[in-house]
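Aim 2 progress update. The chain analyzed this quarter is reproduced below.
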Amino acid sequence: MTDPAETVRAAEDAERRMRQSARWYPLWVTVFGLFTVVLVALTPVMSSLRGTLFTGVGFVVVIGLWSWRTWQPVRPVSDMRIAIWIGLWLVLFLLVVLLVGPAVAGGSVALWALLGVVQALPAFVEAGVWARRTR
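Predicted structure tokens:
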């Protein structure tokens, strides 16, 4: 028969290993958020061709980040949870880039960067929540 204390120790050890294995997630979400801040901040200085190319590269990076996540042995959150914050991020991105940014920020890179931070809030909140959970 197995000793209950040994079973509890094994469970605690498994939990510790899982938390350590999931530490990539808050960093991944933070990188995602920071990248989008840069993407939004550089919006006013891009010509239409450079802007189109930069946006294309941006979406390739986002797809790369999304794909990299699926290769991790431990995924601490469900696809539904990720879809929720990505959905919020996308709505804010479209609002910032198509509506608010042109009307409020004009050609000011600093104002666009501020809008980029606001736009990336869902990613930063998600990173903060999971940074605490994976300690």
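The chain has six helices and no strands. Residues 87 and 131 are 21 Å apart (CA to CA). These observations will guide the mutagenesis experiments scheduled for the next reporting period.
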